[in-house]
């Protein structure tokens, strides 16, 4: 199992000597290779009604991802891609990423616990290989205190995963609190934190109870958010104070001055960061996303094994969904069409994120989900983990994010996973882009220069990455996902036209901190409808995520 050494005094001295010598060689790399303070510029593009068309199906030949294409990483890669296709199901889940598999897990768990539930069949359909994609409310002070207690109880657990693009386990602690409160009210800003901590709490609980921390390469290394400009510092401090005033427990957040991020003196639990920028450190984790999704799929299969059924069909893209005529004898509502045949089902869950508008055309454009290409490199550091620490990082308003992979010895130079660089393509920002079969040359150049410029001497200038890939994220203009029944506001019968169809998608690059919990909420909705019960929103779910309360007017 990988070891994660902390720096000792002799190691620190040696590291400083190497860094001093190496810094001379990278003096020209101190200028950051990406534009700064451009998040507002991206938001203006997201807000703008642009001419667009519904998303195409995922391309069949995506770039090779470290997470998916490493040897033996994907045991279910081609599961169910050959042989007979399931012809009938209670629930069809479209998409085998973290949302789709989490929903299957939650549904299987709910059915397993309900002795009165009739035997049910769940089918997951995936276009490519397994897991290859990827409103203001006012309430009482007592309700606010309940929300604060949820967050405080979960505060030390942090999780963020970005489909083909990530591996981070860092949910929002207080960042963006002011914007959330201004847009949706304090209660909703608190729920926006609570949903991420609920996700983290539940996933870490599952890993701990099963003793599977090692199997998913779970690392508790903390997370540092670097601030490259004074504007970032001011905004971050404003979010911190606003969250604190609302009752959020922010005691674990450690503010680091520039000199502390450059070289913290040796003491227990201190680290050498080597970046000449101020930052905020919070507890955090990282892991191997596909291994987690595989674990959840195995769990769902085990829960279904006695009375229920779970099937997975990869390389089976859904090309259309049509209603089944009431004149037929079929008890099902929907006919799900694929190149391999059709499946009759009662419920459909769209867990397709960026590709949602392919089957739901009204979800395209700035009022729906905007496909956005992210790019990642896996590059070898020039110094061992003792010099890098185990911490994950983000910077430049969150455009860049990176962390070192686990190592097997103290002197091994780790592979570092770095994503971002989209701002180097401004004003495009890689928005409205669905092709992940190629990489963007300009983004790649920015990523190659980024780490040597932020950490002088710790990364070799000009070193080529060992892998480079792209993946498609689903952005929304609000930054928040769509969770709940599918609703087309242009239809006079908007709330019934898609009866039995649900969606959980549009995480805006902040998926795993929200996808697992959002999948839980939508699974609860489906389970309640199956049994004729009334669904009650969990305390941790932001109400403005729910499709029945959202306004999708331009």
TrEMBL record:
SUPFAM superfamilies named among the record's database cross-references: FAD/NAD(P)-binding domain (SSF51905)
Pfam family, one: DAO
Origin: domain of life: Eukaryota
GO cellular component: cytoplasm
Positions of the FAD dependent oxidoreductase domain: 90-525
Family matches, as InterPro entries: FAD-dep_OxRdtase, FAD/NAD-bd_sf
Listed PANTHER family: FAD DEPENDENT OXIDOREDUCTASE DOMAIN-CONTAINING PROTEIN (PTHR13847:SF260), SARCOSINE DEHYDROGENASE-RELATED (PTHR13847)
Protein's name according to its UniProt entry: FAD dependent oxidoreductase domain-containing protein
Organism: Grifola frondosa (Maitake)
């Amino acid at each position: 199992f990988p070891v994660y050494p902390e720096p000792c005094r002799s190691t620190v001295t040696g590291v400083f000597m190497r860094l001093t010598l190496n810094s001379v060689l990278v003096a020209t790399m101190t200028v950051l290779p990406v534009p700064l303070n451009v998040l507002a510029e991206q938001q203006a593009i997201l807000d703008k009604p642009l001419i667009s068309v519904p998303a195409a199906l995922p391309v069949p030949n995506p770039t090779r991802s470290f997470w998916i294409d490493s040897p033996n990483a994907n045991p279910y890669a081609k599961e169910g891609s050959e042989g007979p296709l399931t012809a009938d199901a209670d629930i069809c889940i479209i998409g085998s990423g973290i949302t789709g598999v989490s929903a299957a897990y939650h549904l299987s768990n709910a059915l397993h616990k309900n002795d009165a539930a009739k035997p049910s069949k769940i089918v997951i359909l995936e276009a490519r290989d397994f897991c290859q994609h990827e409103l203001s409310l006012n309430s009482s002070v007592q309700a606010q205190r309940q929300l604060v207690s949820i967050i405080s109880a979960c505060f030390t657990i942090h999780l963020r995963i970005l489909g083909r693009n990530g591996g981070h386990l860092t949910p929002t602690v207080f960042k963006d609190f002011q914007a959330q409160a201004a847009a949706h009210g304090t209660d909703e800003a608190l729920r926006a934190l609570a949903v991420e901590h609920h996700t983290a709490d539940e996933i870490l609980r599952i890993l701990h109870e099963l003793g599977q921390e090692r199997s998913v390469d779970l690392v508790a290394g903390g997370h540092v958010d670097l601030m490259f400009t004074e504007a970032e510092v001011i905004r971050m401090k404003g979010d911190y104070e606003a969250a604190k005033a609302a009752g959020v427990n922010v005691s674990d957040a450690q503010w680091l001055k520039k000199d502390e991020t450059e070289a913290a003196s040796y003491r227990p639990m201190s680290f050498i960061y080597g970046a000449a920028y101020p930052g905020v450190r919070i507890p955090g984790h990282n892991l191997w996303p596909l291994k987690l999704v595989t674990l959840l799929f195995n769990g769902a299969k085990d829960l279904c094994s006695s009375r229920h059924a779970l099937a997975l069909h990869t390389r089976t893209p859904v090309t259309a969904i049509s209603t089944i005529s009431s004149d037929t004898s079929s008890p099902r509502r929907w006919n799900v069409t694929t190149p391999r045949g059709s499946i009759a089902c009662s419920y459909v869950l769209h867990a397709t994120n960026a590709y949602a508008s392919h089957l739901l055309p009204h979800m395209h454009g700035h009022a729906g989900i905007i496909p956005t290409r992210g790019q990642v490199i896996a590059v070898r550091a020039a110094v061992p983990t003792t010099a890098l620490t185990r911490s994950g990082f983000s910077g430049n308003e969150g455009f860049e994010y990176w962390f070192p992979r686990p190592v097997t010895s103290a002197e091994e130079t780790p592979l570092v996973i770095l994503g971002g660089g989209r701002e180097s393509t401004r004003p495009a920002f890689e928005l409205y882009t669905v092709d992940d079969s190629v990489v963007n040359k300009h983004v790649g150049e920015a990523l190659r220069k980024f780490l040597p410029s932020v950490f002088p001497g710790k990364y070799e200038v000009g070193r080529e990455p060992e892998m480079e890939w792209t993946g498609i994220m689903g952005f929304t203009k609000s930054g928040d996902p769509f969770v709940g029944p599918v609703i087309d506001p242009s239809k006079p019968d908007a709330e019934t036209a898609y009866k039995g169809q649900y969606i959980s998608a549009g995480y805006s690059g902040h998926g795993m901190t929200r996808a697992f919990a959002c999948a839980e909420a939508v699974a609860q909705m489906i389970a309640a409808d199956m049994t004729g019960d009334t669904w009650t929103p969990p305390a941790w779910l932001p109400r403005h995520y729910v499709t029945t309360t959202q306004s999708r007017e331009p």
